[in-house]
Amino acid sequence: MIDWTEELLKQIEASSRVALSYPGVDDYPVVLPLPFAFDQDKRCFTLPIPHPRPTPASEERVSLTLLYYDEQMKGERYVLFYGHLSETGNEWTFIPSHVAQPKWRRRA
Amino acid sequence: MMNQLPDWMYHAIEESFTCQFASTTARDIPVALPVFLNHFDPDTGTLIISSPVAMKRVENVRQRPKVAILFSPVGTGPGEPKHVLLVQGLAEVDDTNLESGWKRYFAGWARRQPSARASLTRMEQAMPGYTQRAIIRVRPTRFLGWPEGNFQQPPLVLEVKQ
Predict the structure, then answer these.
(1) In chain A, what are the domains?
(2) How far apart are CA B43 and CA B4, in angstroms?
(3) Closest Cβ–Cβ partner in A62, A69, A105 for B74
(4) Domain interval for residue B45
(5) pTM here?
(6) How far apart, in whole angstroms, are the C-alpha atoms of residue A29 and residue A97?
(7) What ipTM was estimated for this complex?
(8) What distance in Å separates the CA atoms of residue A20 and residue A39, rounded to the nearest whole number?
């Protein structure tokens, strides 16, 4: 369960991009930086599917890292979601099920 | 030694601010988190980061050494490369000298984040163990590149002979 706090929603709004991670065919991770849209009502992310269409080895073993540059901290910050990925036309829909946030503000 | 990469791939690595290091969790889910690259050897292709030894990332790498590192624009400046590069490889953890082994590669981190040198003490206070760092070396097996970050074209794929 995710506690969709106002702070979390603000972090999503502040994020400019995401990194979508899933296992590739040979078990090496695949990470793609993609633009995204967040549906406030359905609480899900939509992402354009690259061409040619990649084939994640699993729709369950997926994570989404929201990334944003923090000018004050001079560093990149993140929010990590675990969830489920599905395809709709030319878009992926990612429905988060868990969220993890860093224990300290600046990551190195 | 490995075959020479296109210039723009070196540029994407060397001019990166942060990169996303993906390891695989105990539940077999790849997770990418931002890190600062510490060192890149253009002859061997080896990429080096450091990580607090208590972080799950270190144990993930020990147990599941197939990793990936993503270099892509962060939005920190006009000189930042627009190219996207994903490096997949086999990683190993070097935890023989947690106190200072990572410091020999620190210059590469500090070049990307000039405030890092001054903030180490503060970070250690905020998170005890922050400066007890393992070195993670990644030996690339494959480079996948999207020039100009164009995901409507297939990536340029360069396999590395092992």
Answers:
(1) 6-41+59-100 (2.30.110.10)
(2) 8
(3) A69
(4) 7-145
(5) 0.93
(6) 20
(7) 0.92
(8) 17
Overall number of domains in chain B: 1
Spatial separation of the C-alpha atoms in residues B21 and A106, rounded to whole Å: 16
Assess if residue B80 is contained within a domain. yes
Find the closest chain A residue to B150 by CA distance.
A50
| B71 lies in some domain | yes
Q: Is residue B159 part of a domain?
A: no
B90 with B15: CB under 8 angstroms?
no
Distance CA A46, CA A41 (A): 13
Tokens 């999503």 map to which residue?
A12
Separation CA A13–CA A66 (nearest Å)? 10
B7-46 pLDDT tens trace: 999 999 998 888 999 999 999 999 999 999 999 999 999 9
**Whole-angstrom Cα distance, residue B35 to residue A2?**
25
One-character DSSP codes across B43-57: TT--EEEEEETTSHH
| Best CA proximity match to A91, nearest among A36, A39, A43, A40 | A36
Q: Is B149 left (phi over 0), alpha (psi -120 to 50) or beta?
A: left
Q: Which of B86, B127, B130 sits opposite A31 (nearest CB)?
A: B86
User: Phi, psi (5° rounding) for residue B32?
Assistant: -110, 125
Q: Name residue, tokens 């992926």.
A: A92
Q: What is the largest CA-CA distance in chain A?
A: 40
Determine, yes or no, domain membership for B154.
no
Tokens coding B85: 């590069």
Contact A65 B149 (CB under 8 A): no
Give me the count of residues in chain A.
108
| B100-143 confidence digits (pLDDT tens) | 999 999 999 999 888 888 888 888 888 889 999 999 999 999 99
